[in-house]
């Protein structure tokens, strides 16, 4: 591949990878990976578990897909490595995704719900039946920022040995990919699951809902924050953890498109009443 593809281009699964059951609707996102070898090893981890969609957010090494160390560590997964998408921000990587889970090396007091990889994989199987999902992994040295974590729907935490919990990036990808593969293959009737999910996504008033994509949810939070500032309920100079708690609250509900529109409608009218521009 001569040039990395942009986030605007569609993801095209390889013909020899499993189809359906979440394998083709799951992205693995590496945020600012530092070492080409880890990128190649992650590609190998994905291919061994039947996945093919790798997204790199602002990797430290330009053209990392063609780096000799990355190719060597891919060890036969050159196709997954070569087809990796390179995007500038996590928002670009999550474009079109309605549910995402971030891997964190430590438990966090605030943020989205936190699960073990196995529990997360069970939820991921349900969400993948509804549309695009993503697993997000942080930088080898610093992990994910709080902002990146809060952009995701949930957290996964690998319960490693507390006396030595250091886990290589590619190893963490392998753990999550294995749990997802197990969960996806346990689904005996994928077609029935998809049909049931589609039925459940119809709202009570008969309108077709469906899970809201990540970018719509982010716009909703921006809109809501502006409304809370206009009400003097949120002090921008001393926000504390209000927006983090609200993100966690909404993450538990699994927002649908109509629900996002309702929250934005409320925010719009608050701003109008407060004399602020929408």
Could you walk me through the main structural features you see in this protein, from its secondary elements to its overall organization?
This protein has a 7-stranded parallel beta sheet with strand order 3-2-1-6-4-7-5. It is elongated, with a radius of gyration of 19 Å. Strand 1 (26-31), helix 1 (36-48) and strand 2 (54-57) form a beta-alpha-beta unit. With 278 residues, it is an alpha/beta fold. It has helices spanning 36-48, 68-74, 78-82, 90-93, 117-128, 146-151, 169-186, 190-200, 214-230, 242-253, 257-273, and strands spanning 26-31, 54-57, 85-87, 99-103, 114-115, 133-137, 154-156.
Q: Could you estimate the helical fraction of the residues in percent? A: 40-55%
Number of strands: 7
Q: DSSP helix count?
A: 11
How would you name the oligomeric state of the polypeptide chains in this document? single chain
Beta-strand content bin: 5-15%
Structural Rg: 19 Å
Main-sheet strand order equals 3-2-1-6-4-7-5
Give the CA-based shape.
Answer: elongated
The N- and C-terminal alpha carbons lie at a distance of 44 Å
How would you classify the helix and strand content by structural class?
alpha/beta
Mean residue pLDDT = 84
Low-confidence stretches: 1-17, 203-208
Order of helices and strands: EHEHHEHEEHEHEHHHHH
Biggest sheet features: 7 strands, parallel
Q: Mind sketching the topology for me?
A:
Elements: E1 26-31, H1 36-48, E2 54-57, H2 68-74, H3 78-82, E3 85-87, H4 90-93, E4 99-103, E5 114-115, H5 117-128, E6 133-137, H6 146-151, E7 154-156, H7 169-186, H8 190-200, H9 214-230, H10 242-253, H11 257-273
Parallel strand pairs: 1-2, 1-6, 2-3, 4-6, 4-7, 5-7
